[in-house]
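From the pipeline queue, job 12 of 40. The input is one protein chain; the requested action is below.

Action: predict structure.
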Amino acid sequence: MQVAVIGAGVIGVCTAYFLAEAGHDVVVMERRNHVAEEATFGDAGLLAADAVSPWAAPGMPTSVLALLHKANAPFLINKKWDTEIWRWLRQWSRECELTRYQLNRSRMHRLATYSHQLMVQLREHYQFDYEQSNGLLQLFRSEQDWQRAQTAIEFMKTAGIPHTVATKEQARAIEPALSPQTSFAGALHLPDAESGNCPLFTRYIRQLAQQLGVEFHFGCKVESIQQSHRGVMLEVDGAHYSADAVVLATGADSKKLLQPLKLALPAITHHHHAVTASVRNFESLPNQALFDDQHKVSITRLGNRIRIAGTAELGTRSAGLKNPAMHTLFQVAYDWLPDAANYNTATLWSGSSLSLPDGVPLLGATSIRNVFLNIGHGSSGWAMAAGSGKVVADIISDRATEIDMDGLTALRYQS
């Protein structure tokens, strides 16, 4: 079967690799000039299956509303009176109910755990080095943040996820690099969580995919998808190309391609930011990745650089750096690791992703024959990329998936 994959981020490249491994003739179409040049390029670097969690969690609606008017808020709204945004927020707030949070997180954890198993197999078989490291320390600045974290901690206990609940003193023993000037209420240590360089990993997978015969076409924009007598017809820069099937791994652009097909999804674009700075003092670097829960900002090491990533502006339709978001990223970096990097010469980045109210991606078949999805991973794309690519390849190949797909397909919205 000839399959076209639209999008050459980490999701699309993993999908192409597993499709080729299953014996399909695969073509990847990407509007940029290389793989990993959009959301994947600024990925936070967290490959932490145990930490994958939906934004929609108990207590979050109240927290978000309280922070909306603050310049350093982790969530911003681009157009406060945009009906699409408020409709999405209403759906999102319903997903914050405890039972919904537990269900959504269990679905994400199922996929992320499977994805991590595949990642380990790939890494050990091909001897990848994508600047990976182990451990994640989640830091909770206020007592209110710490109390809200108890829901996540209970989930980890139930799911059997290795973790350590740490006091301030214990957290500083786990991570001596933390600035003594910044106070916090508590911490959560996930020893098995990983971090690394997502664009580098994506380039490795591209090489493997090409060895299996995958063709990559760059600088081409898919403008529309139509059904044809063969399967699907793609309009690409004014020309038409046919394929037996198509997989959308298109991130923020997915809604535009799906609307003409009458596939309406409760998705919204969110804009996020990242700062990458060269290391100045290696002795001041943390042993593992850090996550500031209040600001929803992560700090990960990428070789001789560190990446600070986070903040989400909901509903934005235009790219660009936002000063309040960048200020928050720099402030978090200076708060926790003031001497670790050359922040004054850092590289700034911003990009967009697609977010669903429940945080769970959409994988597999749609109501349109031969059109498949691999979208909606939000900020956890890398943690679920390998698993998502494998299950979509299995579905297209008419093979049984290795994990339960309940809640991971478009059926949860179509019903």
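Job complete. Residues 309 and 378 are 13 Å apart (CA to CA).
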